Amino acid sequence: MEETIAAISTPIGEGGIAIVRLSGPRAIGIADAIYVSPRGRVADFSTHTVHFGSIGRNGEIIDQVMLTVMRAPKTYTAEDVVEINCHGGLLTAKNILGQCLTHGARLAEPGEFTKRAFLNGRIDLTQAEAVMDLIGAKTNRAHTAAVHALEGHLSKRLEEARERLITVLAHIEATIDFPEDDLSADTREKWLADTTAIMAFLNQLLATAQEGRVLRQGIAVAIIGRPNAGKSSLMNALLGQDRSIVTPIAGTTRDTIEETANIRGIPIRLTDTAGIRKPRGAVEHHGISRSRKSLEASDLILHIVDNSRVFSKTDSELSALYEGKPAIQVLNKLDLPKKLVLPAEFPKRETVAVSSLLGDGIEQLKDKIEAIAWSGRVGSADVDVAINERQADAIRRSLKSLTTATEEMNGKSSQEIISQELRISLDAIGEIVGKTATEDILAKIFSTFCIGK
Ligand code: GDP
């Protein structure tokens, strides 16, 4: 018999409520062992109802709770589920969970509730992954993409691709017993056309991988510039709130500060580096090596140049650091009299003039950041999903086999050889939704979940 699992499904810490979730064949029995209410036993409550009561331990009350009973199969895991809403805080939920374990539940592994939902056929793998994306979404745009995947938009498209592929495969396999000469040229032409159409369809999905990457991980942007150029001020202007402390004393931002800004629906991870310059003290040195690291790890560099001061050699040195990387040169302090004259040898990149203090030019800067973030994205407006790396990898493998298959169709290989490639391609697509997923794939996906999910 399947074990009954339990976990705290809300974040640990102080909060209004916390939820302990139980799932499995003994969920209701275990709840009855710890739940006390004059209204009766959990076993007698009808499904999808909520009840007030207490959770006890050795005759003492741990907390007053609201208990929800949901019987299989219409539940998150498709098993019997009991959720106990208790007061938040560090101890209450922990003690209630302890009681569940004492009475026979096992502590759930990371993602195990969602894994059961998958294993019990309630959702497919793309939907399980969407649960994670939904929890981790940092912008509304990322959130919308996750909701679409959760609703099965991606599954539907993949199922369509699978069905089309199965149809071609069935045609080909039906002719396997026929001698080669009996096949008309038209038949092969038809296979070729169908396979090519499926490839176009898969390529369209694959094109959303870049959008998926940007929406899930965001892009890392490093803000560099000499001391007092306005790095912290620009960071605040982009964040839209006063987040880091802005100070007129040079060299006070010693370490890097990282914050995530929502720019046009893209999570932008901003790093304000301590001015990259010759180290004076140990602390500064530390800051500089961290700055260099964050430069290396960033997708885009914003080089802030102070428009109100004369050109400094430091700016030339800084510009050498981002050679060959995407960068925007931000001429700051537009509101002050211009003293800056960029020498001819200064490497020219995209430029925007802004006043971080007044907010002038910030929208134009956001436009440029957005354009760079989406560069490489192939517009596929009619595709409303954004696939992840695992899904992209499987689609690439599927396409590779289809390419080989089309070559074989052209080269007049035997039907067996062609159908073999189509089967490999079909399996790769099946892997995405979980139809042909191995234990390894499942372990990899669900281990990234948190406990209680
Ligand atoms: P950082 O050392 O590069 O982080 O520079 P800060 O952001 O701390 O800014 C240094 C000083 O320049 C502060 O006094 C800011 O108020 C000022 N400052 C920053 N941006 C502007 C701007 O666009 N216009 C004006 N007038 N002052 C600015």
Describe the structure.
The protein is of the alpha/beta class. It folds into three domains: 5-108, Gyrase A, domain 2; 129-208 and 387-446, Four Helix Bundle (Hemerythrin (Met), subunit A), CATH 1.20.120.430; 216-373, P-loop containing nucleotide triphosphate hydrolases (Rossmann fold, 3-Layer(aba) Sandwich). It contains 15 helices and 13 strands. It has a seven-stranded mixed beta sheet with strand order 3-4-5-6-2-1-7. A six-stranded mixed beta sheet has the order 9-10-8-11-12-13, sandwiched between helices. The two termini are 22 Å apart. Residues 225, 227-233, 246-248, 253, 332-333, 335-336, 355-357 line the site of guanosine-5'-diphosphate.
Give the gist of this structure.
Helix content is 44%, strand content 18%. The chain has 453 residues and is an alpha/beta fold. It has three domains: 5-108, Gyrase A, domain 2 (2-Layer Sandwich); 129-208 and 387-446, tRNA modification GTPase MnmE domain 2 (Four Helix Bundle (Hemerythrin (Met), subunit A), Up-down Bundle), CATH 1.20.120.430; 216-373, P-loop containing nucleotide triphosphate hydrolases (Rossmann fold, 3-Layer(aba) Sandwich), CATH 3.40.50.300.
